[in-house]
Prior knowledge:
Blueprint: H1 7-23, H2 38-54, H3 73-85, H4 94-107, H5 110-121, E1 127-130, E2 146-150, E3 153-160, E4 171-177, E5 188-194, E6 200-205, E7 214-225, E8 229-230, H6 236-250, H7 255-270, E9 274-275, E10 278-279, H8 284-314, H9 321-343, H10 361-369, H11 379-390
Parallel strand pairs: 1-4
Antiparallel strand pairs: 2-3, 3-7, 4-5, 5-8, 6-7, 9-10
Helix pairs in contact: 1-3, 4-5, 4-6, 6-9, 7-8, 7-9, 8-9, 9-10, 9-11
Amino acid sequence: MDLNYTAAEQKFRDELRAWLADHAPQDWTGRKAPGRSMEEHFAYLRAWQKRVYEGGWAGISWPRQCGGRGATVIEQVIFTEEMARASAPPLANVLGLALIGPTIIAHGTAAQKERFLTKILSAEEIWCQGFSEPNAGSDLASLLTEARPDGSDFIVNGQKVWTSYGWAADWCELVVRTDPAAPKHKGLTVLLIDMRSPGVEVRPLRQMTGESEFNEVFFRDVRVPAANVLGAVNNGWNVALGTLMHERATLGAGLHIVYSRQFQRLVKLAHSIDRNGAPAARDPVVRQKLAQIYAEIEIMRLNQMRSISRISQSGAPGPEGSIQKIFWSELNQRFQQVAQEVLGPFAQLEKGSEFAFDDGQWAYSYLRARGNTIEAGTSEIQRNIIGHFVLGLPRSY
Length: 397
C-alpha cells in the first residue's frame, strides 16, 4: 500500500495535531500521579475523554450516524499516532470505544444503539468485557457461566476473571452459556449487563506492580432483560469473535511510537551510565542489544501497516492481527529485559526511591510487561490462530 498521506489525510492530521496542541493536558505524566488514588486517576481520564468527545474526536472510526466521524483506517492510525506523539492521556472508556461499541454497531438493535453508543463516546458509562473464566481463558468456548430463561429475563450465574476495568465499569459485554446441550461454540449468547444489578460482585486482583487493573466478577441470580441480548440467542460465539478481532487488531496500534520514545530515553541513559570505566553505550554487547531492539521496533511499525492494509482491503480486522499481537507483546518483554541489563541494579528500584531511574518507571514497565503475552489472548493461542487461519495448517487441539 502507498504509505504517503493523501491531501485529505494530511488535513485530518493537521487538524487533530492543532486540536491536541490546544487541549491535551500538560500535567499528564503518563501514569498515575504521586498520591493520587486509582479512582482519582480514572476520574482524570474520564474527564479527558469527555473533552475529546466534545471536540468531536471520540470514536472517530464509528459511522457518522452513530456519533463518530466515519474515519478511514489510515485516519484511525493517524489519530493513535498523534495522541502518542502529543503524550496525551489514554481515553478512559478504551474497551467501549475500540471493542464493545463497534460490536454493538455491528450486531445491536436500533434501541441498543440509541441507548448505549453516545454514553460510550462521552465516557458517561464505562464498559468491561466478561469473557475469560477460571477454566475458560484461552479456550473461551468452554465457559460455564450460564443464563437461564425466566419469563422476559435471563437469570445469570457464574464467574469471570481477568476483567479489565471491572471495578470502574457501569456495563459489561458478557458471554454466557444458554444451551448446555449444544456443542460448546453453538450454545453461547452475549448479554449486555448492568454492573450495578443485584447479585453482581466485583473483587480486585492485585498484580505484582501493586495495581489492581483486573478483577474477578461473580454473578449470583442476576436478572438481565432479554432485550439486552446482543445479536441472537445461541449465536454469541460469532458476536464475541468480532469483539476479539477488534481487540487483537487495535490493541497494539501506536505502540511503536511509545516504544520508540522509551528506546530514545534508554539510549540517552546508556550514554551516562558507567560500564567498565566507560559509558555503557560504548560497550559492544550493549550496542548490539540496543540495535536489535531498534530494528524490532521498526519491524513492529511495518507489521502494523500490513495489518492496516488488510483491514483497508476487507473492511474488517482478520486473523493477521494475531501476528501483531504476538510481536508487540513479546518485543516489549525483550525490550524491558534489555533495559534492566543496560541500567543495572538501580533499574529495579520502584517509584518513591530517590535512586530510581525516571521515578521507577523502568521497574514498573518491566513488571507490567509480564502480562503482555497473556492479556488479549496468550501467545500460544495467537500462534494457533496464525497457523490455522493464516497459514492453513491443521487445527491444533
